[in-house]
Amino acid sequence: MSSCIVPVSSDSHFSIHNLPYGIFRPSASSAPRAGVAIGDFVLDLSVIAAAGLFNGPFFSSPSCFSESTLNSFMGMGRPIWKEARSTIQNLLSGENPSLKDNADLRKQALIPMSEVKMELPASIGDYTDFFCSEHHTKNCSKIFRGEYALPPNWLHLPVAYHGRASSVVVSGTGIRRPMGQSFPPTSDGKTPPYFGPSRRLDYELEMAFFVGPGIELGERITIDNAIDHIFGLVLMNDWSARDIQFWESQPLGPFLGKNFGTSISPWILTLEALEPFKCEAPNQEPPCLPYLTETSRFTYDIPLEVAIRPAGEEKQSVVCRTNFKYLYWTIAQQLTHHTVNGCNVRTGDLLASGTISGPDKESWACLLEQTSNAQHDIVLEHGGIRKYLEDGDDVIFSGCCKGDGYCVGFGTCSGTVLPAS
Amino acid sequence: MSSCIVPVSSDSHFSIHNLPYGIFRPSASSAPRAGVAIGDFVLDLSVIAAAGLFNGPFFSSPSCFSESTLNSFMGMGRPIWKEARSTIQNLLSGENPSLKDNADLRKQALIPMSEVKMELPASIGDYTDFFCSEHHTKNCSKIFRGEYALPPNWLHLPVAYHGRASSVVVSGTGIRRPMGQSFPPTSDGKTPPYFGPSRRLDYELEMAFFVGPGIELGERITIDNAIDHIFGLVLMNDWSARDIQFWESQPLGPFLGKNFGTSISPWILTLEALEPFKCEAPNQEPPCLPYLTETSRFTYDIPLEVAIRPAGEEKQSVVCRTNFKYLYWTIAQQLTHHTVNGCNVRTGDLLASGTISGPDKESWACLLEQTSNAQHDIVLEHGGIRKYLEDGDDVIFSGCCKGDGYCVGFGTCSGTVLPAS
Ligand SMILES: [Ca+2]
Ligand SMILES: [Ca+2]
Ligand SMILES: [Mg+2]
Ligand SMILES: [Mg+2]
Ligand code: NI
């Protein structure tokens, strides 16, 4: 099935095979509602619902698409997600002619993407950040502790920490350079810390998933059920102020060095859309404990890129090419581990992968790694050098799976660095 | 003013000087609403509001007390909080006779505390845990790193990490012993980790405050304004599984060792109620950076206790006596630091102090410290010894400020350890 009632170029991220969900406003003054990206358009699902076109056995006349977050829909579970996807795909392919043959409805339901304003797709109760890339972990260890090695726990469990839910923002939101305390890196240990704008502002290329149906406190999600609790994936930039982070992190981990802003892409790709891009996950040696052992272990082949566009520069310079498949711990393992102690999760919770670095330098997914914490420069293809980010830099993540003649992509997750104030 | 239309014994935590806010159900089947504790009664504020008795210049006929959380009221700010307090105090003293002289209204509005069911008082967007006790920090450092010392950053900033909001529960909720990975403490470093119920389940005696009016991302709260953003305080038990925590925490901090449950007391004491118990906070040397320097530095003198009541035992054994005033960093400094980087905070966010240990062993506020991580026993006054908590143990925190002939107390924050499942 490749035909679509909307023109979709073969390199569009939003083919009829994709159909990612988001929350948008048709114009700045209109109310937020749910939509699906298709080519250069957004399909307004509240209009499709009002037209009575969701009328299947599980999912009929839903009100959830008129809400300002996707949480209700995300909580309904896979049978409903599949039925909704199938309905939307049939409408957009023309197999069901109800949209194709109704010019008024098409006009009302299909809005040029250039006109809409995207919003955060969900109300996020809790946000957790994992640390699932072996290469990122070893590179960080080398930079901070002089040893290219994994911590003793790392091969046994997906290390994670809690992040700040309040400061997760949608792609396109400007990120203000944070003020904070830092410690002079050349210090003798007696010099006091200084206060001011971060001098080591960084990005971290990550992906994150949204929890679908949650569980109650005291329950746990088993490894073979984990996928049923996962709604879909987004790109994520875990902006990091390395100078603030280093000074504050002992002994309890990152705090103000991270919580000034975390950007996510507006479109959530479902696991159904990613199904054709399933691939083997890295072999785990030593084998993990039984509660983390997957009957069917897989991940997704998602090529990812980071580009920087300095202020006043028209062209983006790609500075990183990596892939989601490099991660050692899968999304099923992350969610299973998170709940093994009885920790409850709620619909809309966001679980991020950690920085997705691969084996070669081009794939190292933050400036900390690429410049060895400002010991080297990187040279931008279209002008400029960087140790860390400068004010005005636009940082653009993208991710796109290539099918046979079509794409299933995430669009972009971007943010411009605003000067400290 | 000590007279009250309800009998209040001189050792009741809930004198007319206190008037803490909570969310309760008059019976298990009725809807949650806001109340104030007075003696052995709860004053139903939704009834008082419906009777038209909130009719001041700032706060008139409010609907917020019929809601299932205090968030709306907490977001309104100090002028309204003060007016509401004054209205309630005048009604309960009889100075305003509208409640005193109306038997029907009294019957409807005053419910025996023994009949009500308390709920979580707020919807908590984000929960942060600080590490503000010098003695706790040094004791932990001694146990883990063999050195009775503070980390280099500790005297310069209030160290903190993000906790899990979803698993904050109200006092009285049973706490299930978590399952998880741990590392044999006697290991040679090659033995693999094991999986099972935590063998080192602990409490941490803390206090926490709720944010009143929040701020937007990119703004900050200055040190002299911080108190205006603080609604009030509760007792908190940051339940901790030390074996899970130790194995997982490097390098990003605590995660599953903490997020299986965090208990708070149901009644929120306002800063107005605590005003008579203001005292000097510890002198800070070296002086902190200007953004953390208080024009008027103070804390509160709040005596605190921990008791354990083993299953089947009638009597509680007090195992810790400490005081909120020992904390090195004040609540104003905590909130100011949290937002100095532009991190937004929302009404209902919970910021906890960290374990409140004092100088002497009796004041060490977790078993980790009291038993040096299971190297010693503690002997319970009413039977039993403990290295860590056992199934069935009821852990009861209390805190009470003694005025002249009256108390301003928090009641208790308790939880019973349920066996792993
Ligand atoms: Ca990260
Ligand atoms: Ca704690
Ligand atoms: Mg972040
Ligand atoms: Mg806890
Ligand atoms: Ni096709």
UniProtKB/TrEMBL annotation, chains A, B:
Q: Give, as one word, the top-level EC class.
A: hydrolase
Q: Name one GO biological process term.
A: L-phenylalanine catabolic process
Organism equals Ceratopteris richardii (Triangle waterfern)
| Classification lineage | Eukaryota, Viridiplantae, Streptophyta, Embryophyta, Tracheophyta
UniProt xrefs under NCBIfam families: fum_ac_acetase (TIGR01266)
Quote the protein name from its UniProt record. Fumarylacetoacetase
Reaction(s) catalyzed by this protein? 4-fumarylacetoacetate + H2O = acetoacetate + fumarate + H(+)
Family as reported in the entry's similarity comment: Belongs to the FAH family.
Location of the active site: H136
